[in-house]
Amino acid sequence: MEEVKNSKNHILVKGARENNLKDISVEIPKGTLTIFTGVSGSGKSSLAFDTIFAEGQRRYVESLSSYARQFLGGFDKPDVDAIDGLSPAISIDQKSTSHNPRSSVGTVTEIYDYLRLLFARIGTPYCPKHNEPIHAYSPTAMTDAILHYEDGSKIQILAPVVSHEKGTHDKTVQRIRKDGYARLRVDGDMMLIEDFKPLDKNKRHDIEVVVDRVIVKEGIRPRVAEDVELALKLGDGYLIILSPSGERLLSSHHSCPKCGFSVPSLEPRTLPSASTKGVSVITRTSWAARISIGRNSLSFATITASRRTSPSRNSRNAKSKSLLSAPRTSWITP
Predict the structure, then answer these.
(1) Helix H or strand E encompassing 301
(2) CA-to-CA distance for 310 and 320, rounded, in angstroms?
(3) Phi/psi at 23 (nearest 5 deg)?
(4) Is-contact 49 92, C-beta < 8 A?
(5) Quick one: which of 5, 4, 21 has its CA closest to 84?
(6) Which of 65, 90, 236, 313 keeps 20 to 30 A from 147, CA to CA?
(7) Contact by Cβ (8 Å): 314, 173
């Protein structure tokens, strides 16, 4: 079925007579790269710059306030019968405006600076491994998340102390017992701490401390807030909300709650194109900042570097120590 050519999917130029153009009508598809070719003097620049770009620029200026227009001056309408489906346009001269090999359309037109600001203010970083949004929750926000469950819900607040690590972990459990805690979840199984037995040192294990068990109702905010503080202290900034509907891992770090992948808070300088002033912490993989516009999700850039981890005694200190350095960007689409 032949595509219907209208102003939604095409730029429709009718009767262009600018300079040496002879009543030219063209249909330019949107969302594609279109190239005008021809011998010298055939009207390529007259159509692209003096007609299409000039009309797009004129319409954009006319959409501004009268106060702004007085500083920009007026623009004459090109000699054309009609142009439909035209959005505000950007013109880049074929002359070399920069000797920097890293220059791009975004940097030359300075759109890149606005995009960095846009993504830094409303973007959300995502973990490259689990595709999970990276958030930092405050203790108050975690308390609110627990109290958001329906009244009567039975909630358990857990603090992860061992995360997918090999060892018997006997000393860790002994320390927890001295702190007065009575229950554990070991590799997904609930047990009393008295029933704990040294684990297989050649296998990886997960151990979470049951900080408290509560029933959601009015008047328990102070108790829950105290539980959250204790769980964050035990879990080095992580806690698990266990409810009949499932479990939820929250973190007070700006990191992925599943693997601990960490990025700094989004700022314009976090997303540089060629600047050496980027944030200096290192990761081995890539991450993407995304924003949602309507029903669409847009990704800004992947930032790639090497990884450096600091030594730690246990997994709680090794969960989120990654930093970003010497970023390099490339456009991606989800």
Answers:
(1) strand 296-302
(2) 10
(3) 55, 55
(4) no
(5) 5
(6) 236
(7) no
Reference 271, options 130, 131, 135, 122; nearest CA is 122
Give the pLDDT of the chain (334 residues) as one tens digit per residue: 456 678 788 999 999 999 989 999 999 998 888 888 889 888 988 999 899 989 988 888 888 888 877 777 778 889 999 999 888 777 776 665 556 666 777 777 777 777 778 777 777 788 777 877 787 888 999 999 999 999 999 999 999 999 888 999 999 999 999 989 999 999 999 999 999 988 999 999 999 999 999 999 999 999 999 999 999 999 988 899 999 888 888 888 877 767 767 666 677 766 665 544 333 332 333 445 555 444 455 555 433 222 233 333 344 334 333 323 323 332 322 2
The phi, psi pair for 188, rounded to 5°, reads 90, -5
Tokens of 224: 């829950």
Cα–Cα distance measured from residue 230 to residue 176, given in angstroms and rounded to the nearest whole number: 12
User: What is the rounded CA–CA span in Å between residue 48 and residue 41?
Assistant: 13
Determine if the pTM surpasses 0.90: no
Question: How far is Cα 158 from Cα 283, in angstroms, rounded to an integer?
Answer: 29
Which residues make Cβ contacts (< 8 Å) with residue 49, sequence separation at least 6? 91
Alpha carbon distance 16, 80 (integer Å): 4
Please give the radius of gyration of the chain, using alpha carbons only, rounded to the nearest integer.
29
CB 283 within 8 A of CB 127: no
Instruction: Quote the CA–CA distance of 313 and 25 in Å, as a whole number.
Output: 72
CA-based torsion, 165, 171, 176, 177: positive or negative? positive
